[in-house]
Specification:
With about 500 residues, the chain is an alpha/beta fold. The chain contains 15 helices and 22 strands. The relative contact order is 0.13.
């Protein structure tokens, strides 16, 4: 029986709205799976070992997951390789139907899946539910793109030959994902891979394994065959071992990783011996430039949306605010006013909270170190600048002015709720400061000068530019960076090509 017959038909659900009732109940137990998922089965580690997953908001125990190792990972890879032999032969219509059903199931359960994210990594529930809508959108998008993996007929230089190019799935894909978007960073990769006809072995972040495992639950309900999706969970202690197996296994054809630049470089080295396909979405240091010609109020609203999402813990958050001297004081004043007005720190299950905890105390330590370094070098602390009284993993929304390029907060990715503002004089100076980084993921700027908009957009050394807007991520657009921010693109019509090989076929002897 085809996958389509098993699925039946289901209309596409509209995005659900956050209700007040969403804040009254925490994670539903039926969505919290304390086993890994391999070949369609819920399994423990062969060693029997487990690791605990804690709620960063209060340190409470959420549950435990199998602490898997190299042996467990090899088994998952073997099962994915076996499944690939039949999944690559499935019709694009069958893959599309499964992904569409998977999308519907995520949207039907948007509220409960959002609660899981909030409890697991701390982001406010409204943001968490927004992530579920965003994450599900990749399944919807790639359900459609599965049917558009066109090849080409190539004009032949001789009459006796016909030349064509077709696209084929690369094989088993190892997906290594971060904790800040524990659902969307999986669906953006897995949706494309599965649509292309690949199978996947996912290693989620040790802080957020439950958001990965619930996707397997829904995949099963959507009719995805055993072995097509597999999730290997492990503690921080076993992360290096598991990642190394994924990178070095000859059965794995591709690695897709989202995380730090330093870790990405290690994974690239490990992939070299088997010459794997790789996609790397690595660190950022996003400049946010405000020119004298900008609408200052719009720029401040864009800054708020860009900087404080997930408490500043995204790779595309504004990291360095570059403000032209003519509007510098005005921008700083208005930004401070909006920070006081809009931001409230606390547990993400509280309805009016906008800033949840950072992922762990180590993350808080880094943010505080960067803040104190800036102050010690002459930056002015206008607001915040210390741990928040809400708990160990919270940090006060912070505003620093008179920042210079010598400070660590200019050179390093902050990954926290700290706005570092730098004054500049000319457009050339702003572009030079924006490009003064070894990474180039996202860049933002505000201007009402059309010629300036074209010049700056083209001269910024980043993979993505937002003009007069603070939010640029969307399913339909390519996501990725240049320089040390990564290799490849995710999402959009280009995302599925990362999981396919182009095969050239030459047919001779034509009479």
């Amino acid at each position: 029986m085809s996958v389509i017959k098993l699925l039946g038909s289901r209309s596409i659900l509209s995005r659900l709205q956050v209700s007040r009732m969403a804040y009254s109940v925490r994670t539903a137990s039926q969505f919290l799976h304390e086993k890994a998922y391999v070949n369609g089965k819920w399994v423990d580690a062969k060693s029997g070992k487990k690791f605990q997953v804690l709620n960063p908001a209060n340190g409470g125990l959420m549950g435990s997951c199998p602490d898997m190792n190299a042996e467990d990972t090899q088994l998952a890879i073997q099962k994915a390789h076996t499944a690939f032999q039949f999944w690559k032969k499935s019709s694009v219509k069958e893959r599309s139907a499964v992904l569409r059903k998977w999308f519907n199931l995520m949207m039907e359960n948007q509220q409960e899946l959002g609660k899981l994210i909030t409890e697991e990594m701390g982001k406010p529930l409204k943001e968490a539910m927004g992530e579920i809508g965003y994450a599900a959108g990749f399944f919807e998008w790639f359900a459609e793109e599965a049917r558009r993996t066109y090849g080409d007929i190539i004009p032949s230089p001789v009459d006796s030959k016909r030349l064509l190019a077709i696209k084929q799935p690369v094989g088993v894909c190892g997906l290594i994902t971060p904790w800040n978007f524990p659902s969307a960073m999986i669906t953006r990769k897995a949706g494309a891979a599965i649509a292309a006809g690949c199978t996947v072995v996912i290693k989620p972040a040790e802080d957020t394994p439950f958001s990965a495992l619930v996707l397997c639950d829904l995949a099963e309900k959507a009719g995805l065959p055993p072995g097509v999706i597999n999730v290997v969970t492990c503690s921080r202690q076993n992360t290096v071992e598991v990642g190394k197996v994924l990178c070095e296994s000859p059965l794995v054809a591709k690695i897709s990783f989202t995380g730090s630049t330093n870790t990405g470089k290690i994974l690239l080295q490990q992939c070299a011996n088997t010459v794997k396909r790789v996609s790397m979405e690595l660190g950022g240091n996003a400049p946010f430039v405000v020119f004298d010609s900008a609408d200052v109020d719009a720029a401040v609203m864009g800054a708020m949306a860009c900087k404080f999402r997930v408490s500043g813990q995204t790779c595309v958050c504004a990291n360095r605010f570059l403000v032209q001297e003519g509007i510098y004081d005005q921008f700083v004043q208005k930004l401070g006013e909006q920070m006081l007005k809009q931001l409230k720190v606390g547990d993400g299950f509280s309805e009016d909270v906008t800033q949840g905890p950072l992922i762990n105390s180590k993350g808080v330590d880094k943010v505080d170190e960067l803040t104190q370094d800036a102050v010690s070098r002459g930056a002015q602390l206008k607001m915040g600048g210390k741990r928040h009284s809400a708990g160990e993993n919270y940090y006060e929304p912070t505003l620093l002015t008179d920042v210079t390029s010598e400070m660590r907060c200019f050179k390093e990715e902050i990954f926290g709720p700290v706005s570092a503002v730098i004054k500049f004089r000319t457009e050339d100076e702003a572009v030079a400061l924006a490009n003064a980084s070894s990474v180039g993921l996202a860049g933002y700027f505000f201007s009402r000068d059309l010629s300036q908009i074209w010049r700056v957009a083209e001269n910024m050394e980043v993979g993505m530019v937002a003009v007069n807007d603070g939010i640029l991520s969307t399913v339909e657009a390519p996501f990725g960076g240049v320089k040390e921010s990564g290799i490849g693109r995710e999402g959009s019509k280009y995302g599925i090509d990362e999981y396919m090989n182009i095969k050239y076929i030459c047919m001779g002897g034509i009479q």
